[in-house]
Amino acid sequence: MKRTFIILISLILLIIPAGCGSVPSTADPIDKRRFFALDTLATITIYETAPGTDTKKALDSSEELCEYYEGLFSRTRKGSDVYRINHSSGRETAADESTLFLIEESLKYSELTDGLFDITIAPVVELWDSSDETLPDSEALSEALSHVSDDNIAINKNAGTVRLKDPKAAIDLGALAKGYIADRIKEQLISEKVTAAVIDLGGNILTIGSKPDGSPYNIGIKAPFSDTASYYAGGALPPDGIADSVKVTDRSVVTSGIYERYRLIEDKLYHHVLNPKTGYPVDNTLAGVTIISDTSLEGDCLSTACLLMGKEKTEELINSLPDVEAVLIEKDGTLTELLH
To answer: What kind of fold does domain 76-164 have according to CATH?
Structure first.
């Protein structure tokens, strides 16, 4: 079912109680952990467990998982799988099966988006990261783009290795890593007999079960730029800063938006979601995409993929996926719910 509204927004996810009152006592957490990981603030909130569950042990294990996988997937941490692959000068490099799996998954989404979802965007990302508050040099950008193609990726599953055919190519798993890690944390918590919880990895929301009273979690989509001022002209922001909300049980809610990291140059916004065809931020009507799905990995990949593809192709894709729903936010404030 498609529903369209006009509202001025930008996306951030937060957990909000149903209705206007406070969270009922049945939803009060029994344990909670906040820690910095994956370049963001992670929060894990446990609401219910089986008798005898050691919640501290469960949270310790979750935090350790974040650290372990960041040690594999980080593009900048020396010794990580991704760092070693990117600095291998075209040689075969042994990698953990999780790393190989994510690289393979990225190729599926590349095919789905006609090459717009491309983890070999890393040379372009590095150029933008190093250009501070200016635009990258056009010649340097053209050079970086010449090394962007997932045709450069060669995986040898039997040997457990990956090779970048172009020695100057490089990969970035940022569009997949948080989703994959959230799914692994969920598995870990369930194995520790946690029956109701919310995992929040910087806006990647993944729920375990429902709230203890049996009601779904209500995940709010916050108006963008509402913590400062909206970049886009339009109507007034919602008074509570929340543009929409979705109710979920045992599902994932992930958002990608152009408001997350950006710079203003001569009054023009340049955000961090880059088009691998041009090297510049993707430019279509969408400001943000929220994906509701069974796994956080799928939500992570699809939210970025849809933001890259634009509204029309996103609507076609989501309508073809029976277990996936979406909320689309456009730059003019139009909000479209693609709910089955």
So the answer is: T-fold (1.10.3980)
Q: Which of the listed CATH numbers 3.20.20.370, 3.10.520.10, 3.10.20.30, 3.40.50.300 matches domain 2-18+215-338? A: 3.10.520.10
Burial environment of residue 214 by CB neighbours within 10 A (0 to 12, 13 to 18, 19 or more): exposed
Residue 185, C-beta contacts closer than 8 angstroms, at least 6 positions apart: 44, 62, 65, 66, 199, 206
Residue partners of 286: CB distance under 8 A and separation at least 6: 258, 306, 307, 310, 311, 314, 328, 329, 330, 331
Residues with Cβ < 8 Å from 81, sequence gap 6 or more?
72, 73, 93, 95, 96, 99
pLDDT in tens, 86-104: 999 999 999 999 999 999 9
> What is the rounded average pLDDT for all residues in the chain?
88
| Tokens of residue 226, six digits | 């509402």
Q: Are 58 and 198 in contact (CB under 8 A)?
A: no
Are residues 189 and 54 in contact, defined by beta-carbon separation less than 8 angstroms? no
